[in-house]
């Protein structure tokens, strides 16, 4: 069984009188910084001058350079994009860390794949909310919290886990429940999930279904609704009550089609390929490719992003969504910008 932790397991003293530096004020940064402050902790934000800096000041934080934040903090939580962290750590954080400080992450990539190698006298922990940043904040404001993971990579003080739990409590996670994991497990399962299922798997499945219908002469608008739009309704049911709840809600015809056809789509060959994908995550092949891609200024990433935006499903989708008055205006504004 996994170790689960709740409010009652937290030693609230663990972060008393400590200064927490949040490095980066994006999706996770703005949410974690504000939740910690509302929980009574002393928070400073470390950034470079720019949009995020201005926003953090507007939100009432003391904002300083990354180097200064690192030098003043007892806990340094690194919440910049993963592919930026190693360089900023090397140039601005490493030499400024206090002895005995705690270095914290919300994803294990840079520690697990050796891009950041902290000195032996600091604690290295992970507190990873299992949720996008805006939900970390919103759910906290509603008086609850999102579930989270904690892990300890290096325990110089002997109190690393206590610190991790107190931090998790400060951002609300212990209200929902916190699971203990390792940097290795979090990193490898996170990468596998997004590649094989959540992002890579789902987007290719959606496009393949859409293309099949359109190539057979059906209207792209109908294909969009069947293969993309309705996905949300199905996923919401799974989220609420697993596959059984989804199957309870759909028609028996749909359920029979689910059982008879699913395994013809996700075949033994697909499962074999998933194992290969996992092996390439475990042996560092994926990490190396992504690190080198960034060092080369992302030629393949940018080309692929452009090609994906040109796919028919995106064109017809943008048109259809502009008629869906219930979709939130921010999404539409973003799309209008992309279309310019
Ligand atoms: P974001 O892309 O939202 O973070 C961007 C922030 O980093 C901005 O404030 C940006 O400031 C700042 N930043 C970028 N480069 C620098 C730099 N050189 N110096 C100082 N600040 C810089 O990141 P996320 O919140 O998405 O991810 C943060 C971490 O959390 C990652 O490890 C990620 O894996 C993890 N995570 C993210 C989740 C999510 O929901 N997004 C979910 C769970 C974990 P500027 O405006 O100046 O560019
Ligand atoms: Mg991820
Ligand atoms: Mg249908």
UniProtKB/TrEMBL annotation:
<feature type="binding site">
    <location>
        <position position="48"/>
    </location>
    <ligand>
        <name>NADP(+)</name>
    </ligand>
</feature>
<dbReference type="InterPro" id="IPR008927">
    <property type="entry name" value="6-PGluconate_DH-like_C_sf"/>
</dbReference>
<comment type="pathway">
    <text>Amino-acid biosynthesis; L-valine biosynthesis; L-valine from pyruvate: step 2/4.</text>
</comment>
<keyword id="KW-0100">Branched-chain amino acid biosynthesis</keyword>
<feature type="binding site">
    <location>
        <position position="133"/>
    </location>
    <ligand>
        <name>NADP(+)</name>
    </ligand>
</feature>
<keyword id="KW-0521">NADP</keyword>
<dbReference type="Pfam" id="PF07991">
    <property type="entry name" value="KARI_N"/>
</dbReference>
<dbReference type="GO" id="GO:0000287">
    <property type="term" value="F:magnesium ion binding"/>
</dbReference>
<keyword id="KW-0560">Oxidoreductase</keyword>
<protein>
    <recommendedName>
        <fullName>Ketol-acid reductoisomerase (NADP(+))</fullName>
        <ecNumber>1.1.1.86</ecNumber>
    </recommendedName>
</protein>
<feature type="binding site">
    <location>
        <position position="226"/>
    </location>
    <ligand>
        <name>Mg(2+) 2</name>
    </ligand>
</feature>
<comment type="similarity">
    <text>Belongs to the ketol-acid reductoisomerase family.</text>
</comment>
<feature type="binding site">
    <location>
        <position position="52"/>
    </location>
    <ligand>
        <name>NADP(+)</name>
    </ligand>
</feature>
<feature type="active site">
    <location>
        <position position="107"/>
    </location>
</feature>
<dbReference type="GO" id="GO:0005829">
    <property type="term" value="C:cytosol"/>
</dbReference>
<dbReference type="GO" id="GO:0009097">
    <property type="term" value="P:isoleucine biosynthetic process"/>
</dbReference>
<feature type="domain" description="KARI C-terminal knotted">
    <location>
        <begin position="182"/>
        <end position="327"/>
    </location>
</feature>
<dbReference type="GO" id="GO:0009099">
    <property type="term" value="P:L-valine biosynthetic process"/>
</dbReference>
<feature type="binding site">
    <location>
        <position position="190"/>
    </location>
    <ligand>
        <name>Mg(2+) 2</name>
    </ligand>
</feature>
<dbReference type="InterPro" id="IPR000506">
    <property type="entry name" value="KARI_C"/>
</dbReference>
<comment type="pathway">
    <text>Amino-acid biosynthesis; L-isoleucine biosynthesis; L-isoleucine from 2-oxobutanoate: step 2/4.</text>
</comment>
<dbReference type="InterPro" id="IPR013023">
    <property type="entry name" value="KARI"/>
</dbReference>
<dbReference type="InterPro" id="IPR014359">
    <property type="entry name" value="KARI_prok"/>
</dbReference>
<feature type="domain" description="KARI N-terminal Rossmann">
    <location>
        <begin position="2"/>
        <end position="181"/>
    </location>
</feature>
<dbReference type="GO" id="GO:0004455">
    <property type="term" value="F:ketol-acid reductoisomerase activity"/>
</dbReference>
<keyword id="KW-0479">Metal-binding</keyword>
<feature type="binding site">
    <location>
        <position position="194"/>
    </location>
    <ligand>
        <name>Mg(2+) 1</name>
    </ligand>
</feature>
<feature type="binding site">
    <location>
        <position position="190"/>
    </location>
    <ligand>
        <name>Mg(2+) 1</name>
    </ligand>
</feature>
<dbReference type="GO" id="GO:0050661">
    <property type="term" value="F:NADP binding"/>
</dbReference>
<feature type="binding site">
    <location>
        <begin position="25"/>
        <end position="28"/>
    </location>
    <ligand>
        <name>NADP(+)</name>
    </ligand>
</feature>
<dbReference type="Pfam" id="PF01450">
    <property type="entry name" value="KARI_C"/>
</dbReference>
<comment type="function">
    <text>Involved in the biosynthesis of branched-chain amino acids (BCAA). Catalyzes an alkyl-migration followed by a ketol-acid reduction of (S)-2-acetolactate (S2AL) to yield (R)-2,3-dihydroxy-isovalerate. In the isomerase reaction, S2AL is rearranged via a Mg-dependent methyl migration to produce 3-hydroxy-3-methyl-2-ketobutyrate (HMKB). In the reductase reaction, this 2-ketoacid undergoes a metal-dependent reduction by NADPH to yield (R)-2,3-dihydroxy-isovalerate.</text>
</comment>
<keyword id="KW-0460">Magnesium</keyword>
<keyword id="KW-0028">Amino-acid biosynthesis</keyword>
<feature type="binding site">
    <location>
        <position position="251"/>
    </location>
    <ligand>
        <name>substrate</name>
    </ligand>
</feature>
<dbReference type="InterPro" id="IPR013116">
    <property type="entry name" value="KARI_N"/>
</dbReference>
<dbReference type="InterPro" id="IPR036291">
    <property type="entry name" value="NAD(P)-bd_dom_sf"/>
</dbReference>
<feature type="binding site">
    <location>
        <position position="230"/>
    </location>
    <ligand>
        <name>Mg(2+) 2</name>
    </ligand>
</feature>
